[in-house]
Request: fold
Amino acid sequence: MREFDLLNRVFAQNTSLPASVTLPPGDDMAAMRLALHTSTILAAADSVVEGRHTPLGGDAYAMGRKAILRNVSDVAAMANAQPLATLACAMIPAGTDEARVWRLFEGLRETALAWNAPLIGGDTTVVGAESAMSVAVTILATPLDCNAALATRTAARVDDGVYVTGSIGGAWDRATGLGRHLDFTPRLRVAQELFRTLGSRLHAMIDVSDGLAQDLGHIARSSSVTIDLELARVPIASGWNPRDAIAHGEDYELAFTAVGEVPAMLEGVAITRIGVVTSGEGVVILVDGAHRERSTNAGWEHVA
Amino acid sequence: MREFDLLNRVFAQNTSLPASVTLPPGDDMAAMRLALHTSTILAAADSVVEGRHTPLGGDAYAMGRKAILRNVSDVAAMANAQPLATLACAMIPAGTDEARVWRLFEGLRETALAWNAPLIGGDTTVVGAESAMSVAVTILATPLDCNAALATRTAARVDDGVYVTGSIGGAWDRATGLGRHLDFTPRLRVAQELFRTLGSRLHAMIDVSDGLAQDLGHIARSSSVTIDLELARVPIASGWNPRDAIAHGEDYELAFTAVGEVPAMLEGVAITRIGVVTSGEGVVILVDGAHRERSTNAGWEHVA
Reply:
């Protein structure tokens, strides 16, 4: 496989790049024109490794797609944000069938374009046959409104309601490695509508990738507050135990805090109030009936 | 190794981030404020794999440093460009000493900061112990002047002079894997001074990573011109055979085309005229005394 030729053939498929791509892939850098009055650029990077984030020997297209979707989910989690572009670096084990590499890049390229984040750069490197296939994606985004706040993890305030989109649990079948985590809809449109609808009443937001409890913990720590999570209120995927579901991860739903009224549904996605922000010490308190348990590294610990 | 904690500790070293980083690493995305009147963003991505781009078991700091330097060299190759930020995704084989991972990230973080491209995001993923350690870096940049052209590969014109900075060859010791390729100075300042000095007389530019002959071939093909490369004029590293040197790669010098007078030295770096752009078919013609040879995939082929 000639790395240079392969990537050029991938990029040659980009017949419908937006006009904002003023210098397409193939030069030392690519260039994009920014919308007028853009004064902030957002960036995040996230990898997908075969055998860890996707099943070994599975469809390489799904691997490329997941790598883009995970990154779009990060854009969603800023609420006041719109994807701009993506770049992808792939590590390809020696001896990999070239058709498989092509499928990986088509999954990347088509998914990126579908989310208005055209693939404008990257590279492929052939690594030892014993190495895992992997792809590292960087996503760029711009705020919808550069004068308004981003929904950061640090923005939760005491007395905010705590909300989650969709339902939690069941994204990953531990037996097969398959499931929704391979082809989900990042909650970008819901996040943008929440930003437009709530404005400055929308405070902290995160996408649920590590598991609901742990991700709420990130908000609690970053904002130096406590989050009371009422287990009975969490919308749980059918057939799942609530405690398993909130520890599971890869849901790619949004968890957020806001003050005042919040719509029960936006863009066809349910939004459920699952708790409240209280003053405290950067932890999540699981409220399960009359029991209160505090999150620890090892799990949950009964509190008086 | 807890991936999340390690990266947070790396980012906690970022005590001197520029004020333009308005949302530092640690959220779903990082944010940077752009300079006034910035209407274009540039991006490139490039990977470094241990055992391929750096010696196996070598200093991990040097690996992180090289990953940043390679990307800064891509910014240099646009001439009208200034680094803005970097993101890095590392694949870490299971069982790697945590101190080694720390060295990798310190090489990334410190080098990025030194080149005004602060590390604002990324992730670490633990992969199988048999996988190679690797790091994929994305670099963002902005034009020095958004109303002026970038020095693209497509911009060479017939009758341009062809130039190279510094000297070619000897960047990589094939026996030890060591050499200048592990700690070079990307020609960013030279490129920026060329842009300021030559203005629109500066046409095409590329950084010499694949080897001078091959990289000039990229310009020739992209610009649909022929480049006559005069072997005797190429400044060759001491002790190197010219034909080996121009095929060697990893020089991270700049090759460019321009019309009119070009300074013989800028920022302490020699600039040498090595050829001329002629009308033609996207190839490099090696002029070696009275012989003319055309570049092919397999090497050089005598032409009448």
User: Anything to note?
Assistant: Chain B touches chain A through 62 residues (CB under 8 Å). The first strand of chain B starts at residue 21 and ends at 23.
